[in-house]
Structure formats: C-alpha cells, structure tokens
Amino acid sequence: MSESRTAKRLLLSFLLAFLPASLAAQEADTVADQRQMTLDELRTFTDVFNQARRNYVEDVDDLSLLDSAIRGMLAELDPHSGYLSPKQFEALNDASYGRYSGIGVSLKTVDSRIVIDAVIDGSPADEAGMNPGDIITSVDGRPVKDRFLPDAIDDMEGDPGEMIRLTVLPPDGEEREIELEREYILLPTLDFEMLDRSYGYFRLTQFHRDSAKHLQEALESIAADGTELRGLVIDLRDNPGGVLQPAVEIADGFLDEGLIVSTRGRNASMQMEFSAHEGQWLAGVPLVLLVDRGSASASEVLAGALQDHGRALVVGERTFGKGSVQSVLPLRNGGGIKLTTAHYYTPSGRSIQAEGILPDVEADAYGETGDDDRIRESDLERHLGRPDATDNGVNEQSRPAMEFPVDEILEVLDAAELIGTAEDTGSG
Q1: Domain locations in the chain?
Q2: d(CA 234, CA 201)
C-alpha cells in the first residue's frame, strides 16, 4: 500500500471518529459566519502529515502522528480540554467512583529515587508489609531510579487481578522482592474528628459519586451518638474538585431552597440550573468552609453556593478559579475527549472562572505564613477569561445571612492549628 493511500485511510479514520457529531451540529447551526472545514484545509493537513512521516529525522508511525495531532488540537483550546486514551478514559471513570486499580501506595521523588509517601490501610501494599519511606528500586525487573514520577505511578497501576513484582529497599533494612496482585483501591476522601469537644471537622479531599452519601451517613452517625455540635467545619483546602453532582447534593443538604449553581454554554443542553430541596442537615448549626488556592471546580461550586445563601462562613484564601465545565465524550476507540462546554455561575450570578471565590475571612492556609507559589487558573497558559459575571455586572459575594460566632470559630481553628492569623475581608 502506497504512503499516500495509507495516509488517506488514516485521515479518513480520524475524520470518521471526530466529525459526525460536529457536522450534525453545524448543519443545525444557522450562524452564517461559522467556518466549515474545507477540502483545501483537509488537504493541508494531509500534506503536513505526509511531510512529517517522510522527512522527520527519526521514524514515526502513522498512528503516533495522528494521536499527536488530536492531542495538539485539543490542548490548544484551553488547559482542561484534552484527549483520553482508552486506558486514561477507564482510569477517569474509576476515579469518579473514588477508586483506582493498583497496590495502594502514594509515591514521591527523593534524590531521584521513587519513595513511598503513604500506604492505604488494608491495601495489597499494606498487607505485604510495605511502609512509608520504603524505596522502590525496580518494577517488574526494570530499575526506576531517575524515572519521571508520573511514569513510575503508571507502572504501579494496571488491571485488577494483574500481578506486579517490586524490589523494595527499607530505609534501615535489606532489599527484598515482593509480588503483589493489583486490585481496586478505594481512595479515602472523607475524614472526621472533633475540635474543642464542640466543633465537628470533616476533611474532604475530593468529590466522587458517593461523597454526599458518605457525608450524610457520617452526620447521622454523629447524631446517633448523641453528639450536639456547636458548629461544623468542612475543609476543602487542596480539594481539586471531581464529580459535580455530589457537590450539588452536599449544598442541597445544607440548604432548604434556592438555586445552587447554574451552567451556561453554547448549546441548549448546557443551560442548566440545580436547586435545593426542602429539608436541611444541621439546621441552625454554624457551618464553616476552609478554602485555599488549591480549592477548585466542584469545591468552588459548593463554597459559592453556601456563601451566596449565607449558610456558611468561608475562611481561608481566594480559591483556584476553575469555573468551567468539562464534558467527557466517548470515542469509538474506547478513549474519549474531555471538552470544555460551559461556565459555572453561583446563585447570585458570580462567575468563578479565573476569579475564584473570595473568603469572608482571610486566613493563612494551614497556619503558615508567607506567599504560596502554587498557581491559580489565571496563571495557566490559554486559560479562559471570566465571562460576564452577572446580569447587573456585580461580582461580589453576599454577606452571611445567619449569625456566626466568628471570634469563637477562629479561636477553635487557630487552636487546632488549621489556620493562622485571620482577618475579616468580606465586602459590606
């Protein structure tokens, strides 16, 4: 088969995988100036494809070139759109359920070595006697020193039931070889403790499909124990978001009525509103949300909703500012694309995008002082700008509607070393 014929066949496959839905949308779209992909432009793509495969300094296979073209096309849109390989698509689906397939360790790099940072209780790694601080020297016989950390993490993951062979060096022991069977690992995303014998404290690290159910069950268990809370703290710091629906359900749990969040996009299907239902968890009990610049997406939706309704006092730093909605669209090859399709808006009409949620009370995250060099949405290359904020152009949070014992709350948080010096910064 000639190079030209091969290229044409691959190009046809590319078009068949990605164009039917968009062509149908274009036919239905009456916007006169919408550009259509012309035959000449398709020929240009084919020309570039052929030049690269014939003349690049090293051999590149056709599928790799097409894969790169797809990734580049989506990456140029915004930081959150992208192509998902079949393996990545499956992993994303697993993550939405708060699970992944592996051995139950988190890793870090220390002096070019891959080191275990934490071990999940009851996981294959835990049962094999692996501990934080252990150095992984090889995976399935391949040395991992100087490996790029994400690549090392990929090596640890795999299908449930698959075996993996590790060589592990404890800090004060002898190197040993361990063979483990990968399994689904449930990620702990919700932790609870009491502060000052009167304030409940939940650390919520990510939103997955069952997060709202787990929080409700925990609150019911606390009530069943006869514990009367003077206040509840939900820590959303460094929570990157996840699945939107549980964030909406948690907001609904703390509200009796009213809008929670709305989305607006080009297509009618993305014009959505989510509202609260009658009935409230811990009615009348002060609620505090801890946020920082690592609180993003669904975390910001929850914080914005409860802040706008005056149901929660938001304490910490201005949040990350990811106010865009990504739809995950499956492809015929078992992969998918993650495509930005809308913006989030808080009940008062505030846009979160590139702005974030401003706290009612500003405080140093984790009780630390000094500037944090972590980036926000507005620092990302090709980030989307903030759309029109509200119908009236206002982009300021509401003041709390209920009375919060602010001084008492801050004292409790400070004593628990959850925050540092705090200052009321909310608008009047």
Answers
A1: 3-28+36-76, 99-186, 190-424
A2: 6
Whether residue 320 contacts residue 376, with contact meaning beta carbons closer than 8 Å, is answered with yes
Span 126-155, pLDDT tens digits:
999 999 999 999 999 999 888 777 678 778
Nearest Cα residue to 119 out of 181, 185, 29: 185
Rounded CA separation 65/48 (Å): 10
Output DSSP code: residue 402. S
pLDDT digits (tens, 9 = 90+) for 260-315: 999 999 888 889 999 999 999 999 999 999 999 999 999 999 999 999 999 999 99
Task: Match domain 99-186 to its CATH number in 3.30.70.260, 3.40.50.1970, 2.20.130.10, 2.30.42.10.
Answer: 2.30.42.10
DSSP class of 55: H
pTM of the model: 0.78
Identify the active-site residue in 322, 324, 348, 351. Answer: 322
d(CA 265, CA 68): 28
Among residues 123, 297, 324, 348, the one annotated as catalytic is: 297
CATH number of this structure's domain 190-424, picked from the four choices 3.40.630.30, 3.40.50.261, 3.90.226.10, 3.40.50.1580: 3.90.226.10
- The question of whether 308 is a catalytic residue gets the answer yes
Catalytic residue among 101, 308, 348, 360: 308
Mean per-residue pLDDT pooled into runs of 10, the chain (428 residues): 48 43 45 56 87 91 88 90 88 82 86 86 91 93 82 81 94 91 86 91 94 95 92 95 95 97 91 95 96 94 96 95 92 92 94 93 66 75 73 45 86 90 47
- Give bridge partners of residue 108 from the DSSP assignment: 115
Distance in angstroms (rounded) separating the CA atoms of residues 145 and 63: 30
Q: Is 199 helix (H, G, I), strand (E, B) or coil?
A: strand
Q: For residue 386, count other CB atoms closer than 10 A to its CB.
A: 19
- Active site annotation includes 297: yes
324 given a catalytic annotation: no
